[in-house]
Amino acid sequence: MSQIEDAMDGLMTAIRNSEEFIRYQAIKEKVHGFPKLESQITEFRKKNYLLQNSQGTVDLYEETDRMENEYREFRKILWCQSILQQKMHSAKLCSRSTGL
Fold it and tell me: Given 3-state DSSP classes, what are the helix, strand and coil percentages for the chain, each rounded to the nearest 5?
């Protein structure tokens, strides 16, 4: 194996063994038992991703307020909040480790 492949394997192992990833997987498994909730989380993440990558084509403040209002009740559900936070934290770990 090359040095890069070894480093990638080490990184993947570290991520899989991290407390954050383990917590995310446990919450994700719980949510999977509630298809409607899982669908809402997926839709929220999709809209949030598109908003973050809109590159100035929308008013971020206005759109953020709209999304907060649209998903206010949904975000009160503890599992939803937890999985969204864990997903965001996992993404930050990955981007930090790759420099992206």
Answer: 85, 0, 15
